[in-house]
Write a structure and sequence with these properties.
six-stranded mixed β-sheet; seven-stranded mixed β-sheet; 22% strand; single chain
Length: 482
C-alpha cells in the first residue's frame, strides 16, 4: 500500500498539510519509494508562523539558562539516536554510512555550541560614559525565524540554524528539502521530548511555494538558506525586500591547489575524498585540481588511480567508498556535464560512464578531466557531482588569477610543505574558508561557516559567534538617575 504523506509539525502537534499534492521520496541506491512529501501551501506556512508568533513572548522571556537546558536535552537525545539518524540519512540521501555518521556528529556539535548561549548572549556595560551616566548593551531575540534547508546534508544543515535561533529566545520554522525529509522528521520527534513550549519549533514540508511564502511572510524576521547561487541570490533579494535579515549560502567552484613540494602519498587520498566524498554533492567538495608546475602529471595520474579504485555502491554496504547521487534527474545532469566536457575539448583521463555500476538506483562513476580551462563549461559551472577537473598552471601567482576571475569563492585548499606558500595562499585566496593540507575546509561549529562573492549573500555567517549576532538585536540603554 502507498504510504500516507508525511505530516507537518505545527504548534506542538503533527498535522496534515492542507496541500493536495505530494512528491515521492526515493532511496537513491535502489530507486524505491520510501515516503511521500506533501507539497504544503501558504496556509500551512501561515499556521506555522501563527504558532511561532504565539509562542514567542513566553519563550523570549524564558531565562537563557533554561532555554539552554532544552538544547542539552536535545543533544543527549541526538547522541542516543545518532546511529539511527545516520542510517536514515544514508537511506534518503545515498551517502555512505560513515559519511552520514560524520554529518550527524557535526550536527550534534552545533547543538553543543548552542548550549553555551548564557555566556554568548551576555551584553556589555560601561559606567560614567558621561558624568553620572551609565550605558548598557543587551542582546534580545528578534522573533520568528525560518530556514530553508538543502538536500545534501539533511541532518546537519538544519542544525546550523535551529539550535542557535531557539536558544537565543526566538521561535522557528523549518522547511526541509522535499527530497530528504525523513531525518528531519526524526529530529523533530526528538525535539518533542525536550520540554519546548508548543510553537517554539515548527516544520513545514513542501517545495518552492513554501520557500516563497517564507521569504514573503510579514511575521518572519529572519531567513537562512543553503542551495545554489541562483536560488540563494533570489532568496536574499526577495526576503530582504520584505524587510528580513537573510543569510543565504550559495554555490561553489572550489580550487584544490597542489604545489611541487606537496607530500603526494598523504595528499592524494585526502584530495580524492574531497572530490568524490558524498558523491561530490557538497558545497565544500573539490571542483578543480590546480597542480602547479612539474607536479601536474604525477598528481593527475595518482588522482585517476585513486578514483578508479573507488568502490561505488549502496552506502549501507561495508567497503563502499561512494554512493549514488540524489535523483535520476541529477544523475542525468552530471552525465551531461561529462558529455559537454568531452565535446569542448577537455581530456577525459577517467570516464565514469564506462564504470560497471549497480543496475538499480542513481549511480554515477567518478570521472577525471585534464587540460580544463576556465572557458569550458566544466571549468566554471558547479557540477555538484563526482567529476574532477584538472587545470594545470605554472606558478602560484596563476592560481590567484584563476580564483579572482571566478565569481564563486566558497572554499579552497593548498597542499604544500612550504609555510611561505601556505601563508601567501591563505592571505590572498578569495574564498572565505581556506585549508592547508586539508581537503574539505569545513570550520568547526564554534567558527563562522560561509563563503564570499557569489557563494554567500548576507553579512553574518553560519554558526559560531555569528549565529548569536544573526539571531539577536543589540539594545543600548543610556541612563541617568537624579
Amino acid at each position: 500500500m502507498q504510504a500516507p504523506p508525511l505530516s507537518n509539525f505545527i504548534g506542538g502537534r503533527w498535522v496534515p498539510s492542507t496541500g493536495t499534492r505530494t512528491i515521492d521520496v526515493h532511496n537513491p541506491a535502489t530507486g524505491q519509494t520510501i515516503a511521500r512529501t506533501p507539497l504544503s501551501v501558504g496556509a500551512d506556512v501561515d499556521a506555522a508562523v501563527a504558532a511561532a508568533t504565539a509562542a514567542f513572548p513566553g519563550w523570549s522571556e524564558t531565562p537563557p539558562v533554561v532555554r539552554a537546558r532544552t538544547m542539552f536535552t536535545f543533544k543527549a537525545l541526538l547522541e542516543a539516536h545518532a546511529e539511527e539518524i545516520a542510517r536514515i540519512v544514508t537511506t534518503e540521501h545515498g551517502k555512505t554510512l560513515d559519511e552520514s555518521r560524520g554529518s550527524v556528529r557535526r550536527a550534534i556539535e552545533c547543538v553543543e555550541v548552542a548550549c553555551g548561549a548564557p555566556s554568548m548572549l551576555m551584553g556589555d556595560a560601561l559606567e560614567n560614559v558621561g558624568s553620572g551616566i551609565d550605558c548598557t548593551s543587551m542582546r534580545q531575540p528578534i522573533g520568528v525565524c525560518a530556514a530553508i534547508a538543502p538536500f545534501n546534508f539533511p541532518a546537519m544543515v538544519p542544525l546550523w540554524f535551529l539550535p542557535f535561533a531557539v536558544v537565543s529566545g526566538n521561535t522557528f520554522v523549518l522547511k526541509p528539502s522535499e527530497q530528504v525529509p525523513l531525518s528531519q522528521k526524526k529530529m523533530f520527534e526528538l525535539l518533542e521530548q525536550c520540554d519546548l513550549p508548543p510553537g517554539v519549533v515548527n516544520l513545514v514540508h513542501g517545495g518552492r511555494e513554501v520557500s516563497e511564502a517564507i521569504c514573503d511572510h510579514p511575521g518572519i524576521r529572519a531567513v537562512s538558506f543553503v542551495g545554489s547561487t541562483a536560488v540563494a541570490r533570489a532568496v536574499y533579494q526577495r526576503a530582504t525586500h520584505a524587510g528580513k535579515r537573510v543569510q543565504a549560502l550559495g554555490g561553489a567552484k572550489n580550487f584544490i591547489v597542489v604545489m611541487p613540494d606537496a607530500d603526494l602519498d598523504r595528499s592524494i587520498p585526502i584530495i580524492s575524498e574531497s572530490f568524490y566524498g558524498c558523491a561530490g554533492e557538497r558545497c565544500l567538495a573539490g571542483s578543480i585540481l590546480v597542480p602547479v608546475g612539474p607536479v601536474h602529471a604525477e598528481a593527475r595520474d595518482r588522482l585517476v588511480e585513486s578514483a578508479r579504485a573507488m568502490k561505488v555502491g549502496d552506502g549501507m554496504e561495508a567497503g563502499v567508498d561512494m554512493g549514488p547521487v540524489i535523483s535520476a534527474a541529477h544523475r542525468d545532469r552530471v552525465l551531461g556535464f561529462v558529455e559537454r566536457g568531452a565535446a569542448e575539448g577537455a581530456q577525459l583521463a577517467l570516464d565514469g560512464r564506462t564504470r560497471t555500476l549497480p543496475k538499480e538506483g542513481y549511480f554515477v562513476g567518478p570521472s577525471v578531466f585534464d587540460a580544463v580551462t576556465p572557458a569550458m563549461t566544466i571549468g566554471h559551472e558547479e557540477i555538484f557531482g563526482p567529476v574532477a577537473a584538472i587545470c594545470p598552471v605554472e606558478r602560484l601567482e596563476d592560481v590567484f588569477t584563476l580564483m579572482e576571475a571566478h565569481p564563486n569563492a566558497n572554499a579552497t585548499s593548498i597542499f604544500t610543505s612550504s609555510g611561505k606558500a601556505a601563508r601567501e595562499f591563505a592571505h590572498r585566496a578569495t574564498a572565505s574558508m581556506v585549508g592547508v593540507n586539508i581537503g574539505v575546509a569545513a570550520p568547526m561549529a564554534y567558527f563562522p561557516f560561509g563563503g564570499a562573492r557569489d557563494s554567500f549573500f548576507g553579512d553574518l555567517k553560519v554558526h559560531g559567534r555569528d549565529a548569536f549576532e544573526f539571531y539577536t538585536d543589540k539594545k543600548v540603554t543610556i541612563s541617568r538617575w537624579f
